[in-house]
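Hi team,

Below is the intake form for Threonine--tRNA ligase from Picrophilus torridus. Please confirm the fields before the structure is written into the shared record.

FORM ID: S-0412
PROTEIN: Threonine--tRNA ligase
ORGANISM: Picrophilus torridus
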Amino acid sequence: MADIILKVTKGQKFSDLVPEKLNQRIVAARMNKRLFDLSDSVPEDGDAELIDVYSDDGLIILRHSAAHVLANAVVELYNALPNTSNENQEGFYYDFDMQPISTDDFPKIEDKMKDIIDKNIKIEKYTMKKDDILNLFKNNPYKIDKINKNADDDATVYREGDYYEFCRGPHVPSTGFIKAFKLLSIASTTYNGEINGKRMIRIYGTAFPDKKMLNDFLKNREEAMKRDHRRIGQEMDLFIFDTERAPGMPFYTPNGAVIRNELIKYMGEINARNNWQEVWTAHVFRDLIWKQSGHYDKYKNDMFLFQLENGEHYGLKPMNCPGHITIFQRGIYSYRDMPVKYCEPGTVYRYEKSGEMGGLTRPRGFTIDDGHGFLRQDQILEEVSSLLGMIHEVFNTILGNVEFSFDLSVMDKNSPENYLIEYKCRNCGNVFMLRAGSSKIECPKCSSKDLEMDFSMWDAATENLRKALESRNLNYKEYPGEAAFYGPKIDVHVKDALNRFWQLSTIQLDFFMPINFDLYYINSDGKKERPVIIHRAIYGSYERFIAILLEHYNGKLPTWLSPIQCYVIPVSENYNEYAESINSLFVKNNIRSKIDLSPETISKKIKMIRKMRPSYIIVVGEKEEHNKSVSIRNRKDKTIEMPVNEFIEKIKDEISSREINQMF
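The structure came back. Fields below:
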């Protein structure tokens, strides 16, 4: 259903604006980027958008309400104190302080939830004084903590029968809107994710507007569980985690290092062809650089910080950009030298809480295919267009003819206080940049407050991002207000074999770092001029991308990425010598090959190697030795015989061209 945009008048009820035929599909409304319950009154004249339950926002609202129904049911069934919920495009969870339960309890909880839903209980919104809300939740210390931290003098509470929630909303109008739901799993966590926090039970679930969507989700989820990268990684012996020695830090085995190194090698080729120069930067810096870059204030609680005996403070790097800036600052550049583009597979470290880590998708140490370009403003369009081309080439090479989506995050000019803005002093003519929300907005040269706000740099940069997308005929969605305070950006999402979109690549413009580090180049007039920094990552992190790759291919990677490209098996020990000569020939031709000379039967050898997912199984016996050939079995169990030299040429071509499909 297309978005419904209506002209509205202050004082109208949003619920009165819903067409009767859509009263089971519209769950909320939006005005000026703010979501409203249908029971709310229109705050001002203007345009309002009605939110369909099948839209992304509608699904989040539905799942938020389903999480409350879960809490309602658990409180009625158990002596539980509800803490907080969260929801996303997959489902929802709710944390409780309660005695341990298991998935065996889910049918009972689901029955109670179904009873609440079948009663179609109205979900009512109340605006209350903070003191009254504190009194309402006086027996729940977790809600009291959240109220004290988040409630203004007036805040909202939602009522669902006898169940109350301190919540901003919005919610579906009644519980009957939840047409299909399922509890999925259970986990242990801690309050606020703190290591020594109170132990909590986290219950995961999902909800949809209809049962078909739920069934499709559950089917895909079952397939995704079969393809879980952690299971595949164990079967293929790719990586390990040691929670005692280095929690959250991946260790790559020889097989895993093959995949990682091949991806790094390929990205190196792409970078070189597009004039990105590879550098290397340290892993540990004095904390001064993180304070200067602004990362210290933002990431301090998520950084690994330490102090030496001499009193110096250091931190493991959470970002690579200050290192690349340090290299840029070693010289003076003319406008003719620009752009200067540095890249590296840079490992960074962030202190993820123990309950938030998850295999390669959320480790504490990970490597980014990071790049930072130092550009003139007039070079933004060309460089962004080049990066979009690199992104297209990389993912079509590695994943095949994949589907992309593009998000353009831009500033909201109605909230300039959120951004770094250029000002011109009307008194002395000085031009400078300052975050509009700063407490002291005055000219640094003459202290005048008679300033003119200039959006031209933002406008030009944003328009260049638009033009780059449009020049490649790429459809994109624009998100006002989602830009970082230091510049607009493009996020790229890629769909995998399970129809899941993953946000991978980012192209971020940055006006802030050049000011913070006083970066400049000499322009055509011989004067200093600030460059713009472009932060870019294509894979994102190697760890997360490897996880996506393993699940996309179910571990059956294209031959160029496969840790074992050939697995040689003689039919009996009489042909061990020929098998060894074939294996040696493969190795000499840079084909990753292993040989199995064990006394097991061929069928058992093949069965045992399946989980390692070699590209080709090579079987040799009397006929092959006589013909100087090999019998080749592909991943679909199709077998052909081929002269050894011919096979070597074909597989080398398959590897060098980075083919996704096998030769037969």
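SUMMARY LINE: The mean pLDDT is 94.

Thanks, M.
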